[in-house]
Amino acid sequence: MPSVTCATRAAFRYAGKVSEGATTTPVVVDGVWKRFGSTDVVADLSFDVRPGEVLGFLGPNGAGKTTTMRMILDIIRPDRGQIRVFGMPPGVQHQTRTGYLPEDRGLYRDVPALDTLAYFGALRGLSLSAARQKAKDLLVEVGLGDSLTKKAGELSRGMHQKAQLVATIINSPDLLIVDEPFQGLDPVNATMLKNLLIEQRDRGAAVVMSTHDMEDAQVLCDRILLINAGKRVLYGKVDDVRRAFSDGAVEVVGKQLPTSTDKLKAASDAVAYDSSVRYLLRDGATPQELFRELGDTDAEVERFAVEAPNLAEIFVRAVAGDDRAKAVA
Amino acid sequence: MNSSFARLVLLVARRDYLRTVRRRGFIAGTLLLPAAMALMFGISAFFSTTGSQQPLGQVLVVNESPVTLTTDPTLTPHVVLVDRADADAQLVAGSARDYYLVPVSWPAAPDIRRIVAEGAGANKPLSSIEALTLEQSAQAEIELILRLSILRDAGLPDKALVQLLTPTQITSVSTTGEPVTDASVLAGFALPYIFTLIFVLSIFITSGYLLQSVTEEKENRVVEIVLSSIPALPLMAGKVLGLGVAGLTQVAIWLATALLAIPLINQQFSLDVSFSAVQMILAVVFFCLGYLGYGAIFAAVGAIAPGAREGQQYSSFFGFFAVVPLIATPVFVSDPNSLICWALAIFPLTAPAASLELLSLAQVPWMMIGISFVAQLLFVLVAVVLAGRIFRATVLLYGVRPSLGRIVAALTGRA
């Protein structure tokens, strides 16, 4: 049965209070279920997306990410549960405030890219002339100024990708949902489009980014949501998630670092390297306690880092059922 | 910014309309009928003017046979008997193009020679069609004078000869005594057939554009971007509207051509064909109903089909139903109140063609047309709703055909 988490209840209260204003929580998904045939593609999923953040939407193929994004955009409807977009059920009223870059995407092949983008902009609420001008400006900004009148069939894959991202942000959306936005791009173009996405976040847009590239997720996302078989597996700030999956080790760089744990109650073991010591935390001890205890010694700490696996490792462990995921699910 | 339903529908309609009417295929298809009409009248006018410009002159005949040839002012008014020297002199002088030589061997050997002047010949040059027409007329008189002379030589009286050789005139009349000509057969049978064919063709061409538009957006992976901006219902409604107006543009051009052509057809073939304003308006109404019904089906087919080719294959199945009333044209003309006609006028998939056929009959069965109208209207309402459900449930399935269960679930509103 669907359940409402404390976080989503709070988000709903928040959404309810300021539903008329621009600061309403862009997306609140609460206990949503969707079944195709005999399979629950999405099962009791809850999360929210806040203004000015990038939420990394992660999960293996077939986890239910695309279905969830389609439900947020009202392309399909959930069987159970509730979705709120800017405080209201998803619908045509939000389509001027949202932008969507699906994984399966394209442009009309025998039509100039500019015309297609102007059409998409008009569908997103701009006047045709304003949409055309905005499309022109953005295409120039992403380096496609020479290709305005080229038909989409004549554009390279990278050019296509840029034009599609332009289509997604043409209406300056408050909610941006992008599915594998940098797939197949060379590093130069990928960086350009990442910057474009960060610009959107920095101006206050909420961004939901689905990606299989964990490096991108680690760098770009403020929070992540990992789902598997339609269920939420991980949910939280990137740092919190990484910390939850750390092995309880802290790497300290500095001088006169103690190599025994006699004076360190927070550490159970210490291994010295050239200019650093790796401390293993005791059960229940926190890195902060260890940091304080080091302060009471003669040690001169230059760098103090909690060892944590990267998101790619966490992804694999969480999907495989690592118990530590429960702490941040 | 606004995103009202009507605005979105009009945006999609505008785009699909402009995109369709700018296609080379649409322009060529639309202009094909006026061009064919113009060509037909051009050829017809050419023949008629060439025939009147050059009447048959003297037909010179040189007789060297043992039979005495005699002319008749009624049967062979153009034949002039001359001796060979005179005929040759006329050829050289250019006052004649040819003459016919009846040799000594005739009638034992039935060979007649046509002696033709060398070079351009006499008078002004003739086109090959003019020359052929004159030659055929001349040879018809030669045939008559030869038969006349043999029979006269055999001793038949002149009165009997003229009666025998004068061509018989056959006039067709109906049981009530009214004249029935080939022209009225044309008006009674061929015109309803052509009228219906043109409209049915237009319904299918326009519905085909709708199918093409849906499968194209699906194949180009544009449909999901579009659906994130506009719900499925106004998207489908916009497509149906835009492409329907494109179809109406085509029909309007064809109707205007027909209205211009009908007086010319009447004049050319001695007909009295006319379509009233009511008939024309109703034809457009039935075009719209037919298009909406088939358009809804084709939109759903486009959403279900994994690709354009499969879409064409699935939709061709429905083409069969539209053809049935055309096959049954003789029944519509001879017995429009028959059970077959009633069935075809009520069954939704044959009703558009059947009602168009009924409209073009000399005696329009208004009651049947009214019932057909109601049947089609109900079908359109149901078809649009069901097609909308299928469209929404299946259009995002790329490269796979939805299962029957999923289609049924969509139809019943469970998908």
Short summary:
Chain A is of the alpha/beta class and 329 residues long. In chain A, 32% of the residues lie in helices and 26% in strands. Chain A has helices spanning 6-17, 65-72, 113-123, 128-141, 157-169, 187-202, 214-220, 238-244, 287-295, 311-319, and strands spanning 27-36, 39-49, 54-58, 80-85, 98-101, 175-179, 206-210, 223-228, 231-237, 249-255, 267-272, 276-281, 300-306.
Low-confidence stretches of chain A: 1-22
Query: Of all protein chain pairs, which has the greatest interface, and how many residues does each chain bring to it?
Result: A-B, 33 and 27 residues
**Topology of chain B as a string of helices (H) and strands (E):** HHEEHEEHHHHHHHHHHHH
Low-confidence stretches of chain B: none
Largest sheet of chain B: 4 strands, mixed
Q: Strand arrangement, largest sheet of chain A?
A: 5-6-7-3-8-9
Helix content of chain A: 25-40%
Mean pLDDT of chain A: 86
What is the end-to-end distance of chain A? 17 Å
Tell me about this structure.
The complex is a heterodimer of chains A (329) and B (415). With 329 residues, chain A is an alpha/beta fold. Chain A is 32% helix and 26% strand. Chain A is built from 10 helices and 13 strands. In chain A, strands 5-6-7-3-8-9 form a 6-stranded mixed beta sheet, with helices on both faces. The two termini of chain A are 17 Å apart. Chain B is mainly alpha-helical and 415 residues long. Helices cover 68% and strands 4% of the residues of chain B. Chain B contains 15 helices and 4 strands. In chain B, strands 2-1-3-4 form a 4-stranded mixed beta sheet. The mean pLDDT of chain B is 82. Chain A binds chain B through residues 37, 70, 73-76, 91-93, 95-96, 98, 100-102, 104-109, 111, 116, 119-120, 122-126, 164, 167, 171, and chain B through 1-3, 5, 8, 11-12, 15, 19, 216-217, 220-222, 224-231, 234, 396, 398, 405-406.
